[in-house]
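Cross-posting from the modeling subforum.

Setting up a comparison between two proteins and wanted a second pair of eyes on the formatting. Protein 1 (sequence, then structure tokens):
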Amino acid sequence: MSNFEDFNPNIEKSNLLNELTLVDGAGSGIDSDVIDGLNTPQLLRNDRDGTISGDLLLDKLTTATVNKIANTNTVVDIFIYDTSKDSDGGAWRKRTQGTSWYNETLNTATRGSTKEFPAVALIVAEVNNVTIYDATDSTCPMWIVFNMSGTWDGIGISTSNFTMLFNGANVVNALNGNVFMGSNSGGGIFAVNFISEISTIKSTLSISSGTFRGNIAQRNEEIGHNQDTTVFIIGLLVNDV
């Protein structure tokens, strides 16, 4: 699956279907049997010349996706995470019954109605939050929300009361139970592991690299991060993962 490429948050709803079906520059396609349950997989191709070819049938999932994001100007990136593509085929999803997020209260503003991580998840980054939707349901309901809040004190994340999402995300990706959120506003990259529940921040600076003090159920609590002065990335602004 590919990232949303050059997403324009002001795109007309009638054109959003074309944006949703873009695939990556390597010319790979979307195997639609994952999305719409077709018995015979069909392929949609990016011909690299501004055109899209193929006969992928857009289903209820795509329609629900359009309805959820077409009327907002805050969406900055979208990623479809098919856990069957993980190294263990998504088997990790069946081993998380002891995690905080599996056992947290359901049907809240930041948690949906199902415990298990979706087999196919739609990850949507907005200006101040990242939302994971259950793409196995034709209505594409919200499954979990990561909100960004807190106050930077200028000293470092170890003494800052930020939530798990330390800074706004502008790009998202996922693999093997990890959800990655990159920030181009000075936050580096966030990696949330749904198996270990360890959430880390990688930055160019020791002052803003570290590990979230809580678990995933505490993701929206302003409890801050512990500094890790040994792990860095070479760029503070992350535009792709």
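Protein 2 (same layout):
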Amino acid sequence: DLPPMKGPNLVALSRSGGQAVTLADEAYRHGFTLPPLPPAFSLRIREEAKAGVIKNTNPLDLGDVYNESVFLEVAGMALREPTVDGVIFFYDYAFDKPGTFDMIAGMERLSREYGKPAVLCMVPDKADWFALKYFASFPWFSAPERALGALRRSLAHYGKQTGPRRAASVGPIDALPAGDTPGPSRILSSAGTLDLMRAYGLPVVRQELVTNRADAMEAAHRIGYPVVLKAAEPFILHKTEAGAVRLHIGSDGELNEAFDAMAAEVYLLQAMAGDGVETIIGGKRDPEFGPVVMFGLGGIFVEVLKDVTVRVAPIDEAEARLMIGEVKGAALLAGARGTTRADTDALVDALLAVSKLLVDHAEIVSLDINPLRVFAQGKGAAALDVKIECAAPRTSP
């Protein structure tokens, strides 16, 4: 078995740029953070790189290194970092290469030594599949989404066993936007909202905040087309009606056109999320009951049928599953009429995270994740739009 994932910080290693992008997408979609790498990584890899084109980024593309022992050394360097909670390596090598077995044994040794998960992704030939399964007592995965899904469940399970996770201890929210907007509360900034979501393990679609056209172009190339452009600041509640969102942007030219048609101080650039079931998770602070959590399906279910269910926070896993089953549209999540069953485990995790977030932070007046798109079973979920309203900071008399 793998050691438990005790926090959201992950180092991703790969053998190609395409694999690196895949790992980053899946990591962000499952709620993980990819922290920057220390300079020591760059210095060590530079000694082994053949062409010297490797950049010191996370995910780290090791395609210019051809030494299995260096791969394990780099994985060990990552696990030694106190801020790193786990490593995932997309090791797409020919299975008949002798070093493959050494790689499996080495990743197992590192996991045991540091008490952190060191996850291996491989795509062996069909003829070698059963031989590899027979050899490896240590778990490995054939697809990054399965590996990241397993780590997400490990993180959620660890959090339930031990109470608040390290990254969740973010203290009172102090990222309220400056300004003279009247009223008893303010909308949390996009940056503050994103940090809070990630700190509590709430999955978000891969995204970056940008302030100008050039940064947007670079971010789009990192994320990969198609992308979505939204006005992040100032906050606009109904973005579609206000022309503050553009979907299905497939090229630099289309991104330029979207910029010309949209005016904002800060923009949010997001990956286009895959197909799934649209759900809504909300929360508010009731004057009598305190923090409450709301769940419903999107579209006509919430807009017309008012098909939602509510619980007083904190909730546990059993209550979260009851909430999901109570809504009239629950059959859509279960795979009604031959549709694919949705990842209800990911939905449960999101409900529990929102519950904890509301309990931990009395300054949150309301929270709205609309939509939280739930993908097919085993593929997680992703928040596409989030609004958090916080009480204005109190001043000392």
